[in-house]
């Protein structure tokens, strides 16, 4: 009878041991899956942030192109588009197209507040080019140019702020210390 009890205790011990091993293996597999999911999520977030960073840089470059186009036509102001040289027309067109392409990237990468700020920056840059290219008169130019410039700088500042927020820089203590 003692043999049966010993065998039963041994069998029960083996079952408990096997159950504990299975539970441990299950816990290890679950922890491994959770770690993998965290890693995938972090990589996805890093990829999204990199894409946004690239799109925002593209918008900054497009804005610089619009500013350069506006400056290029200052001395060449004309009453009509037909009065501009082909080179200046091309410069203005390329700057505008570059801004529209940048907007498309931001539309894909988001988020919406950055897109809205980028759209206003593009419109302000276009207005800046138009004011500098085609003033109705010197008097109108003198009053419109400062307004267009102020609108542009406000739009640029809003875009910078929205981009920093989207990239997670605005809450950084390091950023506050350097600005």
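-> sequence recovered:
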């Amino acid at each position: 009878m003692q043999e049966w009890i010993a065998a039963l205790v041994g069998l029960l011990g083996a079952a408990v041991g096997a159950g504990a091993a299975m539970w441990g293996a299950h816990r290890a597999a679950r922890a491994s899956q959770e770690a993998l999911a965290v890693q995938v999520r972090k990589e996805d977030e890093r990829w999204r942030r990199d894409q946004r960073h690239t799109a925002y840089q593209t918008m900054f470059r497009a804005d610089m192109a619009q500013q350069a186009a506006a400056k290029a036509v200052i001395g060449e102001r004309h009453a009509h588009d037909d009065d501009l040289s082909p080179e200046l027309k091309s410069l203005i067109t390329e700057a505008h197209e570059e801004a529209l392409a940048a907007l498309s990237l931001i539309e894909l990468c988001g988020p919406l507040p950055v897109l809205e700020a980028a759209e206003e920056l593009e419109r302000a840059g276009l207005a800046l080019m138009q004011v500098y290219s085609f003033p109705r008169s010197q008097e109108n130019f003198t009053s419109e140019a400062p307004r267009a410039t102020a609108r542009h700088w406000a739009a640029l500042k809003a875009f910078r702020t929205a981009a920093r927020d989207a990239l997670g820089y605005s809450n950084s203590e390091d950023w506050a210390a350097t600005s």
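The chain is about 85% helix and 0% strand.
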